Structures are given as C-alpha cells and as structure tokens.
Task: inverse folding
C-alpha cells in the first residue's frame, strides 16, 4: 500500500491525513475530529497549534507532536523537490517522468533550483513592494521588477476591486504545448469560475510566488515565467467551450479577459520573462441568476491525453478558490450576490462623493415610529454580541429604555461586558435559553411569574457564560448550531407568539463586533415569528459588520427593507447622545424617599427593581417625565380618567403641578386619611401593624381615594402598592426592606403604607402574619408603628361591611354628600367647557348620584335615552350586549379588541391604523358606553362598559326584547368569538366563569352562591328549567365538559331530584373517571340521598328489612368515595382528601344506624365488632342483608386505609383537613382545628373499637393474633408514622419511652425472619427512630445497621414503596463523613432513587395548591453525629426557643431567624452547594448533581450563586434551610 509520504503533502486527501496521523501515534478521537473538519494536505500544511486545540479540544502534547512532524515532512519534501528539479533540467522536455510530476506537484514550488542559480549572479537582491497592474490595463503598458513583492493574495472586497491569486508556474511553463495549455486553462478556469460565482472582479497571476514555504522567496514575490510563444497561452482559453455547457461558455467568454503579458525587468535569462495575468470581470447583466459549474481539464499521462474532471461549482473563499460545499444554500444567496454586484457597479460609475445621510434623524424615526418621543409603553428586545470597552461608557440610552430581554452572545458579558455594566444600574435576571422551555403543566402566566419577565430585565446568555460554575460553556459555531439552535428557536417563538403581542415590542440588533452564524440565526427566528421586518432595527458602526448582516438578511427580505431599517456608521456614543433626546425620562433619574429624621435619601434603581412585589411611590414620582411627554399626553390622560379609566400617578402629579385640573377628594378620603394620622399617634398599646379597609361600590371612586391617600402621605410615610400575585412571604420581605432602607436604626424608621387592591382576605392575613413575624424578629420596641395595610376592595354592600368594624373600615358608595355635590357640580361645569359631556361620562354619572334610588333612575334614564333608537339587529349592538353581560356577572371581565374586530369583520392590514379603524366602526352609542383598556404588562387592547351600573342597566333595558338566558345562549353559540385565536384563553375563561364561577362575599360579591350568579338569576327570575337548559347548552358548547355535567348533578340534588342528579353525576364520571372532585360529587349525591332516607325513618322503629334501602345507598356512597380517594392518590395535579373524609363520615353514620338496630343494641357492644371482623353473622340480619355482608365486613379495612392516608397527608403538611370549597360540592362542612390531635384520637378509638383493648392484659398479649396486635399497636399510638412521631412532641400524657418500648415489644422478636408487611416495617423502624430521640440507651433500641439491613425488605421497585418507607430510606442511607467513596456512591444512589419517588408523590399532592395553604413539614435535620445521632428531630430544635413566647417562637421559625442562633450552628451541620435557575443543588460523589428544594422559595437568590445551607428531611425529600450566599 502506498504511504502518504510518497505523495506531496498538498495532494493528500482527508483519508491520507488520517493514515499519517495514525503512523505518528495520535489518538483515534482526535483523528476522527480532524477528519470531520475536512482537514486535507493543504489545510494540514497551514495548521497551527491553536487551530488544533480549538477544533478538536486537543491537549498541548499531541498538538506539538503534529506540528513538529508536519514541519519535518515539509522540509524533507522541499529537499527532495530540489533534487528532482535538478534532474528534470537535464532531461528532455518531453520526458514522461518529468511530465508526470506536473500531475502531482503544485506549481507553487517549482522554481527553487533554477531561480537560485539566476539569483546567484546578482550581487544584491532588492525585495521592494510593488503595485499590481491596474485592472483591465493592457499588459504592454506595464512592467514588473524581478524580486519585488506584490500585496498578499486577497479575497472578495467590494466586488469591483479585484481579488488576486498567484501561481509560480515555473516548471509548468517549460512543458510541451498540450500539457502547458491544459495546466494553464485548469488554473484560469477554476479561478474564473470562483470569481464569477461570487460576482467579484479578479486577476490570476502566473509567475508570482504563492508559497511561503519556498526557501529564499516570500509570498507575492515576482519571479516571472519564460514565454517564447504567447499564442500558447491565448489559445489555452479555447478550453472554455469544452469545460462549460454551451449556454454558459458564451457568457464565460465575456467574463474572462485575454491573457496579459507583463514584462519582468531584471531577468538575466536568454528568454524573455513575463508575469502572465488574466482578468475576470463578471458584469451583473451577464451572470445574473447564474451559478457556473466547470469541468476542469487535466492531462492524463497514462492515456497521454486530456481528461475532464467532474463538473464542479467553485467559489472564492478568502484568498482561495474552493468547491461549493452546499449548492442549495449557495443558490439561495444568488439574489443577494447579484444585488451587491449591481450596487457596486452603480457606485463605480460615479466619481462624485455620496451625499451624507441624516443618520440621527433616521435613528430617531426608527426608534420612535415617527413620533416625537419614544413610546414608554413599548418593550424593547436587544440582540447583541461583544461590546467594545470604549462603548460601555455610553449605554445611558439603554438604561432609560423599557428593555424586556437581552439576547447576549458574549460569554464574558457578565464578567466584563454589557451585562456587567448594565447591572450596575438595573437588576438583571440571568437566564439561559433552555430556561424558556415551558415545563409540562405550566401556563404562560406561570412561566412569566417564575422568570420575572415583566419585573426585571431578563439577560439571556445565548452562547454560554464564562464566569458561571454550572455547565454552560461557550462553543464554536458548528457546535452551537447542533446544540443550541433549537433552543433559540423555541425561546424566540415563545416570546413573540405567547408573551408579547405583535406591535407591543421592538427588536434592536446592535452589531458591535463581527457577526457570526448564531447571531445571524437570531435575526431569522425573529423575522419568522414576527411575520416580517417591521419592528426590527439594526444599528452598526462598522460597515464590514453590517455587510455580513445584510448578506444574511437579504435571504429573507429585499435590500430596500434591510437598508431602510438599519443605521450604519454611527458610533455607540453617537447613538447614545441621539436617542437620549427622544426618551420620555431624563437620563438616570434617581428617585427619592423620606427618612425618619425628616430628610431625604436616594432610592437605588437596582434595589427598587429587586423588590418587584412593590410599586414604590417616591417623593419625586413622575418628575423625570420629559416636558414633551407632559404636553402631548396631559389631555389624553385627563379625558381617560373622567371617562372611566383608573386613576394613575401621572393624573395626581399633573393635578398637583396645576398642569391639569384637580382630582376631587371624596369625603371618604378625609376619613381614611384621618385613620392614617390616628395610626401615627404613639401609644404603648399601639400594635406594630394597623389595618384600614376601604369597601366601595364598583365605580364609586374607591381606588382613586386609596391612591390619593398614598400620594398625599408620600412625604411622611414610605408608600407602595402591593402586587398580590407575589407570595405573602416575598411581600413581607420587600416591605421590611422598604421600611429599613437607608435608615441606621430599625427602631427608628418611618412606617410603611401598603395598598392592597382587590385581594383576598386570606392573602391579606398571610401578609400581616408574615410582617408580625418580621417585627418580632427585629424586636421592635412596643408601641412603634411599622406598617399600615390599606385594603381597597369592591363590595355590593360597603355600608354593612363598615358597620362590622367602624374603627378600621370605611365605606364608599355612589351616594354623594352635600359637600361632594357642590364639588362635583363645580368640577363638571369646568370639564364641560373643556370636553364634551359624552367624553367624561363616568364623571357626569357620579355627579348625578345623590340618592340610591336617584342613581338607579338616572342611570336608567341615561341608558334609555342612549339606546332607545339603537338598531337591535346591528352587530355593534350585539357587541355592547355581550360586553354588558360579561361585565355584570364576571368580575374584571372584558373582551379583547382583537375579538371585537373579528366580530365586526374588520380587516386591518397596517397596525398603525388599527385603532382608528376599530373606533370608526362603532356606533355613537357604543363609543359612549365602551372604554378602551390596555394591559399594564402585555399592552393588549380590550374594551369594557364604562361603569358597572351602566352595564347592569343595559342588560335590563335590552332585556325587554331578549331575556338574559337567551342573550347568554346567543353569546355561547357565537362561533366567531368562540373560535377567535388571539387572546382565546382569556375569553374562554370569562365565558366559562359566566356559567361556572360562584359568588363569594369574601370576594366582594353580594352573597355566597351555590351556582354562578347568572344561573342563580335565571332559575330565580326566569325559570329553574331554563337554568338547567342553559347549563345543558354550555355542556354541549364546551365539548360536553364533565364539569358542566357535575354542575347539573348539583343543581338537581339541591332540589331533591336525586334520580336526575344520579344520571348527570354518572355522565360526569364517564367523562372524567379519574377526577376526584367529580367522583366526590357523585358520592355526595348518594350521601345526601342516604341522609334523606335516614331522616324519613326517624320516627319509625328500625329493622333489618326497612333499613336495607338506606344501607344500600350508604354503601354506594362509600364506594363512590373510595373511587374518589383512589383517583386523588393517582392525580398528579391536585390534592383532595374529600374521598377519605367521606369514607370515614359515611362509615360512622352507617355504624350509628346499625347500632340502633335491636339485634346489636340488645347485646354486648362486642357483638357488632364480632360481626364486622369475623365470619359470624347474626341470624336476624343474615337474610335481609345477604348481599351486603361482605361489604360491611370490609368496612374496617376501608376505614383503616382512609386513616392511613390522612396520616400520610399530615406527615407531609400537618395542616387542617378541609376540602376545596371552590371545586367540590357540599362535602365536609366542618374544619378540624387540630388535625394531629384528631388523628391521634381517631386512631385510638379505631384501635380500641376493633381490638377490644380493655379485655386484654400484658399476660395474654403473646396469644394475640397478628390482626389483634396491629389493633393494639394502633391503640397505643403506633398505628402510623404520624402518631408515632407525635409522641416526641406531645409528652404530657404518660411516659413516651415506655409507650414506644411497649409498641416495639408487640412486633416479632426477630424481625429479619418475620418478613413483616411493608406498612408494619415502616412503623417498626419509625418507632426506633422516635425511641432513639428520647433514649439512646433503651434495651429495645435496635442497632442502626440492623435497621439498614431490615430496610432491604422494602419493595425493590421504589414505585411500590410507601412514601413513609421512602422517607425512612433517606434517613437510613444518608452518607456519613467516614464512609468510603464506594459506600458514599452506593448510599447516594439509594437516597437519590428514594428522593425521586418522594418528590413524585409530593407533586401529586401539591401541584395546584399555594404553598401558604400547604406548608411542608420537616421531621428531622442533619446533625453532626453518626447513626441515629446524625439526625436531630424538630422537637429538639424547638427546645432552643422554649423560653420564648408562642408568638416569638412562631416568628423565629417563619422568619428564619432561628437559623441564625449560635445554638443551631452547634447542633446542625451546614453543607455547601450552588443555585442554578432558582434551584438549589448539592454535589454528591463523582460530581453527582443533587437538587435540594428550598423550604422557602423566596430565600433562593434569583441569580446563580454558590451557597451554604442546612438540610431538613421531609416527605418531599431533603429541603434547604437558611440558604446563604457565599462571599
């Protein structure tokens, strides 16, 4: 086999390179990577050590070896070539051997010996720079000097300026005519094809050195070739017709110039030496839309004739001509290349300089959309790569922008780039593209909240982050395309299609560095998902960078579009100065807050942004607004408010500055303000937290009063509006921060006034409790006011709410006092001079509302006058009716403008005309009653009725023509609205709420309803049957939704129509057989039916025969509840214990019924137990109850399972047992206040009942059956893991040590051989853990290692393990310090497997339940010991705070202050880890990545940090406490 070394290096292909690499001992992995990179001999010759490391990740050792061996190979080849040249000179010109060398030796290395001899004649060789012959100049008019040097070979420049390629051609020039022509034609046609295909002028030079490796010559050195017959070269071009297709050859002839012979001065040869040059000029009118392929001539020595290679398309790549790798992609760029060539030719025709563009004006127009000022409500998305250091000082324009997110391709951005600089002024959330992949079951709104998308700027690192300790490195272009292109596509698509509607954002590409493939791909993704180039802007300082961008962009849109939306040539500093002129706020405006000593302090912007749960009201709020904004927006702002819009801070600021008229203060303002002042008066009994509640009629100005109170108290208090979508703990943390910000002493701070708008009372209580904990933690002096919670809620009976607690409640109704009448009358006159009455309609309505009956009469009169001539058949009227129906019955409802446009059949092509077209389509009446809204986050436009009373009156007025049930049915069946895509989720929610959502007084409604208020209205005011028909229609419209069938079952059993209720409950179950809430409803049907039957028998003597019917119904109920509880266990999204509670409740009711029978009541109580637990059946009931005996005898087992599940629930949460009243029917009405005590008592009663515990003594204990022993274990408190651990916290009754020892004694003496059931095994091991916490010296305490071995009897498949078993496995196998690495690895595998399944079980219980309602319970903490002593029970930690009051204990636990106590640091062990994407991780053996959930998610830093924390052990798995960032 021929070795690669036998052939010249330049001729090696990829396979020959691989063979050579193996011969020098290079690893196969590196060889494969180089083969994938298509490294052939030519590339190998040019490779550097840096290339090898970058392309393959090769280490320095093998890289150095390759370079060394390559250099040796090249040197040996050059020596052999010199010897070959000498022998070639001595041979005949037609020597076959000499000719064959042409085939394999590059012409670049053929001149050494001959020219060396010639040079020896010269005394001094001068190598000076030389300019090439001007393009298309005749060769006779120009000369070269021998050994002078041309500029290096070049690639494509501006398409008109020629690229250059050099060939030495010394040996080839001495060949015979046929061989020389073939060689010359091959090089010319290859170069020409490359130039024509990329549309650039070019010149190929023969007689100029192109190899840096030739001794004694430099690249570009002019040598010349001997030319005896010039026609030999000219005739060589006749190969054009043979090498190109007939259609192409004529075009090629027009592009390839005649060979030019430039004489070389200084040649001492007898033969004239020339540099032979051929010019290529592919004019666009010749080559347009063409890609040329050529069959290159090649002289075959064996056949002694010229053969033609396979047709190939070539292109210029840098200074080389290479085959086109991807023809499809190359064809797609034809239009771009033609456009650039055409533009270059046009520019070349003019010598006059271009007129200077007004780039500043263009930039302003692009950013503002033609307005004077940037739209402050428009989001900006920034796409950037590496920022130059000089540019980082000029980013003020970015600081003042409303930036939604940044796609950053600079891996060093966070450490030293744009992110680092931006983060000095604004808080950023650092993300990676994979963070934008929506997890299963998570909604878009949930993702927005999780990533804080609308709270702080999101910084997306698209190509790694160099300072990040997690696994997120940068990668080269090819790797990026393979691994991250899809992530980019999904990320951009999510933002453009699901988060930000079109027209609400603008994408700015900042080309601050050379662009690469990943950066360009970002443009393509945005262009695709935004459906066009509108709202995409490109800013570039470098024209070269822009050309790369432009070339790519032209693949998607035309040249004019790209150029018109790009600004090229302005530096970042110039962009900065220009854009600040059109920004709505002044540069780096700093807000100010009041301080305790009556001064002021600056509010750091980053600090403010980090507290995203609060909208902080500063002393100088709105003062950063530019004068242009003030002037242009003031009229619109005022009109919007008086037409029914919500009051804004800008309203109040403009009024305060007298720029617009004053905002009237209702009498309630003074009441609330006086309450605030009263709170500020010091008293020793003053609570640290005061609550003031505003209850207001919808549309009566309640929110205006609340915000006026904040505005006018901002100088004396620190004020903020609470975002109640954030958790109570986060709000509390932020409120405490706001109180103490820039204050020296926590005891001396201004109180914080917090406004809560329309939030649940439960949430308000949660925040208050959290704040109380914080105040106690800080040990604030008694009598110090810290927080004022101002709650503003709508209510249909505010005066009643006020009477319940007049000292802290204020009511606001539509009724005006005499003072208010005068104020409103005066204000109305002023406004009517400025606006037409119809444009301030809400204010006009309020000014007329003197008495409640007058209000109704006025609104009725207004609506009648407005709508009396309305066209009832028009689509616009129908739209008004639909909106009125929704606004009347669904709180905060609206219809999106997009839905309205679809209903009105509007088609708006240009976004800027959309609003005008929509408003024009409305009737005059519709314009007056509809108000336009805009979402504060997404800026989606929508409409609602200007006032709730107007909406209600519209329904009543138009109800004369159409009943509400018919209107609702009409809306339900409207296909245009129902099928409209954009904003569909919101519309469907409102429509569903119209039929499903019940009213709650706690949410400000007039009453608690069992059905939706629409259904209640229809059944009461129209006809109950119509209500049923309406629900049936909704059932069909929503694809026969099971929940509507469930509603129908409730509606029927509520009216004692049990047969019909049974039918619909069955239908619902058939639709959703695994839904626990629906199964619960079916159980409730039978439970209510059973109750009704028992009630009917109250006066009768109960016999086995007359109780059969009730018995059967009860058993049906229990069966349904069993199905319910089974479904609840399997459900991964909800937690519902209604089935378990139902089994217990109905079981107890059934037992009570059975006890009343004479057959059981006349004998001992053990008679019933004997019947239930054995095969014994009393004669009296044997025949009547024949088909129910097996079910009744199974009752004990069923109740046991229910108790076990409840125990497990308490092991997770230890919270109240209650059902979700929003989703279930009338199930469990009572709430268990002390669930632990309840379970202990029920377990005790269960054990006593079924064991007959009073009949047994210690002496006959050994003769008991296993079942009786289990009952006794229940009786003593060892029936489940919850009651066992409760013995550690409740030690008042008896000696827990002796109780636990007695429990353990009831188990087999040799448990390893006994093969206990898994449930018994759990209780046995848990009893030892409990006993070890009380007495490590007990004789009953087994060795820790024995329990580890015993745990192997748990099912091998963790999926079959009980959660309590998985919990114990985590404890038993948590690694210890002295373990070997093998032991640690084995234990971690066991723990990780158990935790994985623990978390699955936990997720089944807590998917949709707010954490504040279901708090995870920690049983143990990781300590510093080994074995049992490795774990510290929570009760031991609690003893540290035993001297504190109950409130202080609670405060320390919920605030986290307990973890700061020095006693804790001695007791517990702190571990190290890191956070990533707001998740905590612990490092296991061999780099295992172990996620540790945080007990309080708010304690996790939002950035990715290194942290320390304590470990707690829960039924969710290990959890992290006291997470502290390492500094």
Result:
């Amino acid at each position: 086999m021929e070795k690669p070394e036998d052939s010249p290096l330049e001729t090696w292909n990829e396979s020959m390179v691989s063979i050579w690499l193996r011969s020098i001992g290079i690893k196969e992995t590196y060889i494969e990577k180089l083969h994938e990179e298509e490294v052939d001999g030519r590339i190998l010759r040019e490779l550097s050590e840096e290339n090898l490391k970058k392309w393959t990740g090769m280490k320095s050792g093998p890289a150095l070896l390759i370079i060394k061996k390559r250099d040796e190979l090249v040197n040996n080849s050059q020596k052999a070539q010199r010897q070959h040249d000498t022998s070639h000179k001595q041979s005949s010109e037609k020597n076959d051997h000499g000719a064959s060398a042409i085939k394999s030796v590059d012409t670049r290395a053929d001149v050494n010996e001959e020219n060396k001899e010639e040079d020896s004649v010269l005394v001094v060789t001068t190598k000076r720079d030389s300019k090439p012959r001007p393009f298309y100049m005749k060769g006779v008019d120009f000369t070269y000097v021998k050994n002078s040097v041309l500029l290096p070979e070049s690639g494509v420049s501006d398409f008109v300026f020629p690229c250059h390629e050099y060939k030495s051609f010394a040996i080839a020039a001495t060949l015979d005519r046929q061989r020389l022509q073939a060689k010359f034609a091959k090089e010319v046609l290859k170069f020409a094809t490359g130039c024509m295909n990329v549309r650039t002028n070019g010149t190929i030079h023969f007689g100029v050195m192109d190899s840096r490796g030739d001794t004694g010559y430099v690249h570009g050195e002019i040598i010349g070739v001997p030319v005896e017959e010039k026609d030999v070269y000219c005739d060589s071009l006749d190969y054009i017709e043979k090498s190109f297709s007939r259609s192409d050859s004529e075009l090629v002839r027009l592009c390839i110039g005649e060979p030019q012979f430039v004489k070389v001065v200084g040649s001492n040869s007898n033969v004239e030496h020339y540099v032979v040059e051929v010019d290529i000029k592919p004019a666009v009118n010749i080559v347009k839309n063409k890609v040329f392929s050529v069959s290159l001539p090649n002289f075959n020595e064996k056949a002694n004739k010229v053969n033609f290679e396979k047709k190939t398309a070539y292109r210029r790549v840098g200074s080389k001509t290479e085959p086109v790798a991807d023809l499809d992609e190359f064809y797609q760029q034809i239009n771009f290349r033609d456009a650039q060539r055409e533009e270059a030719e046009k520019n070349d025709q003019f010598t006059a300089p271009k007129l200077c563009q007004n780039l500043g004006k263009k930039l302003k127009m692009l950013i503002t959309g033609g307005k004077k000022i940037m739209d402050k409500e428009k989001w900006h998305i920034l796409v950037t790569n590496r920022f130059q250091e000089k540019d980082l000082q000029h980013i003020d324009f970015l600081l003042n922008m409303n930036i939604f997110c940044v796609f950053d391709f600079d891996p060093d951005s966070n450490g030293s780039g744009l992110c680092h600089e931006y983060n000095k002024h604004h808080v950023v959330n650092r993300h990676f593209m994979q963070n934008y992949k929506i997890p299963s079951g998570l909604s878009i709104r949930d993702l927005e909240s999780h990533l804080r998308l609308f709270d702080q700027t999101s910084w997306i690192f698209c190509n790694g982050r160099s300072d990040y300790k997690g696994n997120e490195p940068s990668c080269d272009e090819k790797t990026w395309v393979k691994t991250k292109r899809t992530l980019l596509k999904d990320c951009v698509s999510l933002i453009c299609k699901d988060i930000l509607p079109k027209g609400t954002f603008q994408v700015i590409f900042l080309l601050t560095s050379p662009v690469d493939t990943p950066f360009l791909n970002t443009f393509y993704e945005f262009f695709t998902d935004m459906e066009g180039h509108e709202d995409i802007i490109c800013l570039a300082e470098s024209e070269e960078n822009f050309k790369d961008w432009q070339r790519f962009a032209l693949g998607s849109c035309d040249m004019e579009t790209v150029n018109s939306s790009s600004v090229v040539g302005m530096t970042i500093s110039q962009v900065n100065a220009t854009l600040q002129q059109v920004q709505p706020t002044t540069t780096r405006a700093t807000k100010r807050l009041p301080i305790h000593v009556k001064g002021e302090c600056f509010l750091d912007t980053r600090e403010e942004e980090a507290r995203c749960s609060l909208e902080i009201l500063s002393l100088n709020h709105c003062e950063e607004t530019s004068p242009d904004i003030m002037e242009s927006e003031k009229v619109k702002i005022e009109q919007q408010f008086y037409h029914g819009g919500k009051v804004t801070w800008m309203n109040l600021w403009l009024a305060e500055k007298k720029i617009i008229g004053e905002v009237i203060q209702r009498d309630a303002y003074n009441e609330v303000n006086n309450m605030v002042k009263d709170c500020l008066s010091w008293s020793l009994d003053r609570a640290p937290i005061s609550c003031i509640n505003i209850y207001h009629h919808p549309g009566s100005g309640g929110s205006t009063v609340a915000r006026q109170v904040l505005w006018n108290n901002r100088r004396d208090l620190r004020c903020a509006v609470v975002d109640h979508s954030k958790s109570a703990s986060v709000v509390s943390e932020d409120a405490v921060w706001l109180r103490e910000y820039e204050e020296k002493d926590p005891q001396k701070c201004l109180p914080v006034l917090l406004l809560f708008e329309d939030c649940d009372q439960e949430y308000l209580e949660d925040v208050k409790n959290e704040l109380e904990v914080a105040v106690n933690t800080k040990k604030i002096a008694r009598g110090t006011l810290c927080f004022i919670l101002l709650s503003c809620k709508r209510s249909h009976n505010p005066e009643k709410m006020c009477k319940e607690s007049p000292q802290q409640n204020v009511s606001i109704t539509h009724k005006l006092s005499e003072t208010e009448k005068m104020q409103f009358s005066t204000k109305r006159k002023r406004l009517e001079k400025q606006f037409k009455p119809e444009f301030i309609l809400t204010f006009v309505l309020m000014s007329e509302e003197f008495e409640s009956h007058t209000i109704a009469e006025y609104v009725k009169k207004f609506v009648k006058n407005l709508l009396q001539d309305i066209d009832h058949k028009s689509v616009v009227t129908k739209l008004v009716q639909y909106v009125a129906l929704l606004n009347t019955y669904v709180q905060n409802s609206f219809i999106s403008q997009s839905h309205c446009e679809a209903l009105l059949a509007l088609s708006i092509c240009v976004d800027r005309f959309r609003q005008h077209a929509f408003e024009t389509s409305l009737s005059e009446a519709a314009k007056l009653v509809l108000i336009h809204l805009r979402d504060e986050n997404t800026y989606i436009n929508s409409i609602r009725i200007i006032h709730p009373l107007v909406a209600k009156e519209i329904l009543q007025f138009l109800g004369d023509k159409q009943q509400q049930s018919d209107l609702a049915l009409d809306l339900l069946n409207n296909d245009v609205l129902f099928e409209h895509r954009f904003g569909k989720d919101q519309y469907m929610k409102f429509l569903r709420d119209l039929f499903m959502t019940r009213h709650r007084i706690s949410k400000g409604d007039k009453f608690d309803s069992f059905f939706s208020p629409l259904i209640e209205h229809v059944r009461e005011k129209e006809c109950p049957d119509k209500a049923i028909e309406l629900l049936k229609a909704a059932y069909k419209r929503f694809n026969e939704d099971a929940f509507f069938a469930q509603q129908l079952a409730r509606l029927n059993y509520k009216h004692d129509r049990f047969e019909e209720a049974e039918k619909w409950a069955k239908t619902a179950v058939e639709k959703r057989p695994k839904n626990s809430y629906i199964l619960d409803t079916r159980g409730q049907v039978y439970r209510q039916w059973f109750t009704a039957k028992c009630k009917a028998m109250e006066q009768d003597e109960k016999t086995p025969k007359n109780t059969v019917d009730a018995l059967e119904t009860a058993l049906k109920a229990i069966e349904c509840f069993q199905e319910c509880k089974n479904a609840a266990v399997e459900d991964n999204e909800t937690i519902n214990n209604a089935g378990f509670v139902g089994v217990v409740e109905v079981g107890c009711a059934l037992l009570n019924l059975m006890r009343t029978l004479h057959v059981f009541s006349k004998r001992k109580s053990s008679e019933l137990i004997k019947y239930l637990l054995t095969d014994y059946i009393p004669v009296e009931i044997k025949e009547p109850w024949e088909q129910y005996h097996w079910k009744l005898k199974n009752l004990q087992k069923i109740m046991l399972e229910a108790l076990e599940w409840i125990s497990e629930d308490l092991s997770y949460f230890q919270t109240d047992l209650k059902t979700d009243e929003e989703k279930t029917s009338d199930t469990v009405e009572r709430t268990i206040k002390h669930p632990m005590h309840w379970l202990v008592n029920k377990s005790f009663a269960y054990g006593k009942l079924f064991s007959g515990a009073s009949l047994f003594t210690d002496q006959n204990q050994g003769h008991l059956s296993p079942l009786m022993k289990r009952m006794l274990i229940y009786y003593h408190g060892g029936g489940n893991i919850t009651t066992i651990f409760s013995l550690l916290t409740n030690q008042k009754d008896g000696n827990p040590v002796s109780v636990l020892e007695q429990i353990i004694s009831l188990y087999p003496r040799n448990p390893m051989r006994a093969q206990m059931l898994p449930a018994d095994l759990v209780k046995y091991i848990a009893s030892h853990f409990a006993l070890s916490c009380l007495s490590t010296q007990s004789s009953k305490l087994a060795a820790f290692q024995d329990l580890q071995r015993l745990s192997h009897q748990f099912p091998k498949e963790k999926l079959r393990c009980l959660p309590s078993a998985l919990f114990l496995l985590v404890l038993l196998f948590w690694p210890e310090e002295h373990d070997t690495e093998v032991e640690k690895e084995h234990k971690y595998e066991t723990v990780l497997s158990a935790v994985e399944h623990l978390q699955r079980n936990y997720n089944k219980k807590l998917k949709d339940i707010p954490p504040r309602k279901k708090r995870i319970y920690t049983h143990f903490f990781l300590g510093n010991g080994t074995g049992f002593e490795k774990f510290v029970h929570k009760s031991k930690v609690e003893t540290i705070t035993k001297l504190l009051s109950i409130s202080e204990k609670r405060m320390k636990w919920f605030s986290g202050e307990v973890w700061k106590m020095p006693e804790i640091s001695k007791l517990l062990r702190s571990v190290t880890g890191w956070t990533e994407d707001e998740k905590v991780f612990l490092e296991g053996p061999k780099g295992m990545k172990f996620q540790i959930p945080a007990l309080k998610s708010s304690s996790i830093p939002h950035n990715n940090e290194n942290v320390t924390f304590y470990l707690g052990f829960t039924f969710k798995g290990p959890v992290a406490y006291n997470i502290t960032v390492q500094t």
